[in-house]
Amino acid sequence: MTGALALLALPRAFGCSEASAAAGASPAHVYVSAARFPKNAYGVVIFAEDGRVLREIPIRERGHDVAVDPVFRRGVVFARRPGAFALAFDIDGAREPSLFAPPPNRHFYGHGIFARDGRLIYATEHDAETGEGVIGVYDATGNWRRTGEFPSYGVGPHEAIVLADGKTLAVANGGFSNDLATGRESIGIGVMEPNIAFIDLATGSLKARHGLSGDLNMLSLRHLVETPRGDVWFGGQWQGAMEEAPSLIGCVGLDKSVRLLDAADAPGVALRGYIGAVALSADGRYLAATAPRADRVIYADTETGKIVREIAIDDSSGIVPAGRAEFAMSTGKGVVRIGHDGGEPDLRTFSSTEFDNHLRRV
Question: What percent of the chain has pLDDT over 70?
Answer without folding.
Answer: 88
